[in-house]
Amino acid sequence: MGCTSCATGTDGQPKGCKNNGTCGTDGCNKLTVFDWLSNMTLPANMEPFKGVEVRFKNGRKHFYLNSENFSLSIGDIVATEADSGHDIGIVTLTGELVRVQMKKKKENPNPEVLPKVYRRASQKDIDIWQKVRDKEAAVQKRSREIAIRLGLQMKISDVEFQGDASKVVFYYTAEERVDFRELIKEFARTFNSRIEMKQVGFRQEAARLGGIGSCGRELCCSTWLTDFRSVNTSAARYQQLSLNPQKLAGQCGKLKCCLNYELDTYLDALDGFPKSDVKLATEKGMAVCQKTDIFKGLLWYAYEKESGSWHQLSLEKVNEIITVNKKGKKVASLEEFIEEIVVPDKELFSNVVGQDSLTRFDRPKQNRNKRRNKGKSQNQNKGVKRGGNKSGNQPKSKNKNRNRKPQKNAK
Question: Which pLDDT value is given to residue 352?
Fold first, then answer.
């Protein structure tokens, strides 16, 4: 649940986070962790874990020691120890789940070696923090202008102020090594603060900026993915995907991380399949594998001299041919092992509750000519019943003035 500034406006348009992630509800932040151990009590002889997890800008998290035993809960703003001065962050986890997170991220579980939490942030600390956070967009724009003027081949993707405004961290990406000694001097003169340059990878840059992927959902790296494993083109080959860089690359310009999600399942399924470079020896010639369908267990082979005509074989038949070839024999042809696989028609809809058809009240359309002829025949029948002739004309009355009222004589 987000704060009120993250809600939608009167016109239905989203307002956006006006608090820059300092609202304290921790509902609109990335990489939020649910504390599922908060309602569980510790044993009587066990002390609570003194470590806390604190989040900073763009999902950057660190672990700190609550040496003073402050009563901290999720969403509290605290002042933490930094290299010089102090930093301001939001508490995201407390208690035993912090120990679990530290083991997961391969951190030293000994809380005594962690930096300390100084205090709860005062109103003065929060005011300074929000003031410098509001300046980050303008500082980023100005820093990019300086980098372009100096002709440096780098991209400044993000800027982060320390909580006490004593240091500015510039995150940049570059394909080659950059000599930014002159850049740091000019940054120090322009921003009147200590400068720190941090180079991040393209995946880390996409995680910090966020966005919507081709699947229509938020990027995995900016929502829940914390470890960036290497992705190779072999993952696409095992899954039989077209090696199109425009479809396989994400917003970071690298291969998509989701290519690794189903790779293990495909590798397990391919254990029973022969390798693609295994050829089948027949009397008509050698046959080469052209395509494999893992889910249906089918393979397509074609003769080397007739690469245009493919023959569909089941996995059992292919293994049977390979067994014969290992004995030094050849099969007559691939056509002998082709099986006609009948695919049953799937019923898209079944009337399981006894409902009538949705079109039961719709009247079928009739042809205009049929309706016209039907109307004429009905009129003819009515005329005949009333004593008319076959043409449908009514008979003439003999006494025309029978039904007329007598008129009075005029005086």
Answer: 56
